Amino acid sequence: xxSEFVSVVDxxxxxxxxxxxxSAVLEQHLDRIDMRETEIHAFNHVMAESARANxxxxxxxxxxxxxxxxxxxxxxxxxxxxxxRGVPTTCSSKILEGWKPPYDATVATRLQQAGAVIVxxxxxxxxxxxxxxxxxxxxPTRNPLDTSRVPGGSSGGSAAAVAAGxxxxxxxxxxxxxxRQPAALCGVVGVKxxxxxVSRQGLVAFAxxxxxxxxxxxxxxxxxxxxxxIGGHDPLDSTSLDQPVPSLTAxxxxxxxxxxxxxxxxxxxxxxxxxxxxxxAAFAALKAAGATIVDIxxxxxxxxxxxxxxxxxxxxxxxxxxxxxxRYGLRVESADLISMYGATRAAGFGAEVKRRIMLGTYALSAxxxxxxxxxxxxxxxxxxxxxxxxxxxxxxxxxxxSPTVAFPxxxxxxxxxxxxxxxxFTIPTNLAGHxxxxxxxxxxxxxxxxxxxxxxxxxxxxxxxxxxxxxxxxS
Amino acid sequence: xxxxSDAKTTPKITAQVVAKVAHLARLDLTEAELALMTTQLTxxxxxxxxxxxxxxxxxxxxxxxxxxxxxxxxxxxxPGLDRQEVLDNAxxxxxxxxxxxxxxxxxx
Amino acid sequence: xxxxxxxxSHATVLPNGWEMVIGLEVHVELDTKTKLFSASPNHFGDxxxxxxxxxxxxxxxxxxxxxxRAVELAIRLGLAxxxxxxxxxxxxxxxxxxxxxxxxxxxxxxxxxxxxGFMMLPGDVRIGIERAHLEEDTGKSTHFGGTSGRxxxxxxxxxxxxxAGVPLVEIVSxxxxxxADQARQYVSELxxxxxxxxxxxxxxxxxxxxxxVNVSVRKAGDPFGTRCEIKNVNSIRAVGKAIDYEARRQVxxxxxxxxIRQETRxxxxxxxxTHTLRVKEDADDYRYFLEPDLVLLDPGAEWVxxxxxxxxxxxxxRRARLxxxxxxxxxxxxxYVIVERGQDDYVQLVADAGGEPARALVxxxxxFSEAGANPVVPAKDLxxxxxxxRDAKVTATQAKTILSEIVANGGGDAVAIAxxxxxxxLDTSAVEAMVDAAIAAQPDAWAKYCGGEEKAMGALVGAIMxxxxxxxxxxxxxxxxxxxRG
Lengths: 475, 108, 486
Prior knowledge:
The complex is a heterotrimer of chains A (475), B (108) and C (486).
Chain A: H1 8-16, H2 22-40, E1 43-46, H3 48-63, E2 75-79, H4 106-113, E3 117-122, H5 156-163, E4 169-174, H6 180-186, E5 189-192, E6 212-217, H7 220-230, E7 260-264, H8 273-288, E8 292-296, H9 304-319, H10 337-348, H11 351-364, H12 370-390, E9 396-400, H13 416-420, H14 427-432, E10 435-443, E11 449-456, H15 461-474
Parallel strand pairs in A: 2-3, 2-4, 7-8, 7-9
Antiparallel strand pairs in A: 1-3, 4-6, 5-6, 5-10, 9-11, 10-11
Chain B: H1 15-24, H2 31-48, E1 72-73, H3 83-88, E2 93-94, E3 97-100
Antiparallel strand pairs in B: 2-3
Chain C: E1 18-29, E2 66-67, H1 68-80, E3 84-85, E4 91-94, E5 104-107, E6 114-121, E7 125-136, E8 140-144, E9 156-160, E10 167-173, H2 180-197, E11 209-219, E12 228-233, H3 236-255, E13 263-268, E14 273-279, E15 289-290, H4 300-310, H5 315-326, H6 333-341, H7 344-352, H8 357-367, H9 379-390, H10 396-409, H11 414-420, H12 428-441, H13 443-450, H14 457-467, H15 474-485
Parallel strand pairs in C: 12-13
Antiparallel strand pairs in C: 1-10, 1-11, 3-6, 4-5, 4-15, 6-7, 7-10, 8-9, 11-12, 13-14
Pfam families (chain C): GatB_N, GatB_Yqey
GO molecular function, one term (chain C): ATP binding
Keywords (chain C): ATP-binding, Ligase, Nucleotide-binding, Protein biosynthesis
């Protein structure tokens, strides 16, 4: 727990009660940014000026007795792959450097309507492709708890911003673990909602059938509150679920008595012993709180990595084809159109993005589709079936979020596959479209935080949050 | 598990194939990048061969998480973007349009 | 646009037993207010890049949402083409081009909304419709510099995305068409159907209806030959010309021992020839995959049936109805023209007012070309005129004069006009006297006519009409001359 910082719930309460103001809260956060941002590099863009204006307007409105929403005065950071009108949105890529979207992402609009004060756009692995935030074209983000280590990724900037107290909460996007893994590595709460619960409109797509936006917070209650603000149907996203987000803040105190918690009978290799020890402690805590532990199997678990690293790059290769130097972003001038495309994209994309575009293009191309992409879609069905069977006998499943604690910067950059293995526990959720979250649960090696992941079926957020709240109480 | 009917042998990737894929993706890669990419893709695809041992013949592909259907909008105009704001972001705006170098053919 | 179906057949016949095999891919822009996947206006001719939004421009983060009206119009068209309407999906067709904002086109691939239809052409020719699927249009490029403003050799292009995302239906025929005439009839009939169901304004000159033509040749009974796709065929006339040119070109190539390459060719209307646009390569690899930003489109039987119930009577049925009413051939020019103008209901009104349908058809065809579907002339006025002529109270020529006056005045009493003009058809005995007089005056002509020289009748008829001051009915005169010849 990062108890030295004030939670969203407490900030909202203090401002409401007149104990402090939105402006004062903002200045505390901006002060911390001033002190540590150079070292940590959580942000691509700090919006101090507009944030101050927003905070002042909120204070004025509250003083005048106007309602400003459930997040009035809360400083929040957005991952720099969510469109903000007139504010640079880069995806940490040279190809979008300087681009100012002419429209807002739905989540940005909802946060603003709820009274949140957006403090900046956070760093990420370029186009959200990575697990360490080392793939940013603008330099890596460092873990606030040990700056020689990565914050995880791809939403490393958003995780670090909360862990360093730069923002009371932040939003990230999770395609294969990009919220949960950095949350675990930075010791904060991170939620990957059920696919379709949060609108993707204005989220720069990585892999459309897997991407989902979710919050980073210090507490489970804060995460529940943010989910209630950003979630719910959006007519601008065809894959948005046509139902309101379930009430989550209301269920946090309900405990886990009688709940069945699934435990993997076969734990994949490669987990640090300290991580497994914390997982055992989490099971023990839930058992002590009245839950039963049941062994379950996910026979297709080990194939998820392959399915994911074919499906996600395939979709990405198509999603990233629009960066062609015609309408926005970088252009490398050339004599003819086809040279302009090739030169622009070669100069604009980093190595990891190029690798995934190549992999995805290959997997979809004539002659290889059936062998790769087509098969990957079938494996995706297998893991969904595995989950369906597992949830016959349990309500949620507990796993480590990451096999390891935060690793040193540079340790895994030379071998893409080693980096991909960071996602082994988080990927299956995205393939199935289910809900999952990471909750800090003590520390492991090098005194770095360990996250426990709670997996829940689609729309299982209320149950998942009850378990998360119980773990928070026990930690 | 027995090899499925649609498993076949996983195709081998060659430098030639990588070059063709780079062209499809409109990525100008240097010789060194092509060589590295060939090595790395080969490594990954070897690993991804793990699913070849699964019998997937009776499995329906799953392209999206949920079987949602029939999401429509009504045919009503909503004000769009301001042209100037859009062109201000363009690499080469000209006469209210986007200028591009000659394409010398139809779709390139 | 003139209708091709009724034109006399000029179908080119290829030499040496060669046969044309033709398939058409017709793109039509649907007549919606907004685009297929976003809420910008679908409107032709506006200032460049004014009908734009994040989806149209392929901005990062933009997501498509299907226009319900576009789906409805696609289904209307599918039903009118006798298609099966089915649950369908959208795919991404990936390729790079300046006017394709996302670098992929959202289109329907292996599960199109309409499949397996057909269209009937004159002579009971059945042309299969393989599919009629929904997809989005691209933007438009204008090429500058170089020699001719053409794409080849230009210095640069400017791109306008107003058209990007406009809803299209692509109607793909089966290769059932065997000559240029049928192809023109097909396009013409398709256009009539589009207008009838309100799916599109189908203006080839504005590009809201565009034809790509697949042509191959073979010896009758052989398997299909290699086909070429011809683009830029921008009028019904050009469809016929391009096919005839291309088929002859292919026959020439094959007869001189060459082979046909599968390629896309461009129709140059000014030069009247096709030339290679691009050769189909292995590089045409569109990497189709299911569009993850959209969901299944399953209109369901209830919606489809309610659309079917709302369809108007289609051109073929209207032609059959008009044919039955008037006795004219259903494939006659008059029937085609009247139905295309939408005046068949008016002809029915004239008949309902007691008029003679066959004459009403002729009058409306001749005099109502500018009158639209609902002519202002009261149906009873036209009915009265048909009866005057039928009962030989006026001659055909006189009827024509009266018709002109009625049309000019937006109506009028035919009987009164005839009286005012002193029109009356002479009775048969009076005409017979004139006939006898003419025979007596021109014995040479009479002798030639009796000897079988039909032309000679003209001089006799002319004289009779003159002496009657136009009041003799030409048909009566002819009949009398024939009778007297025996």
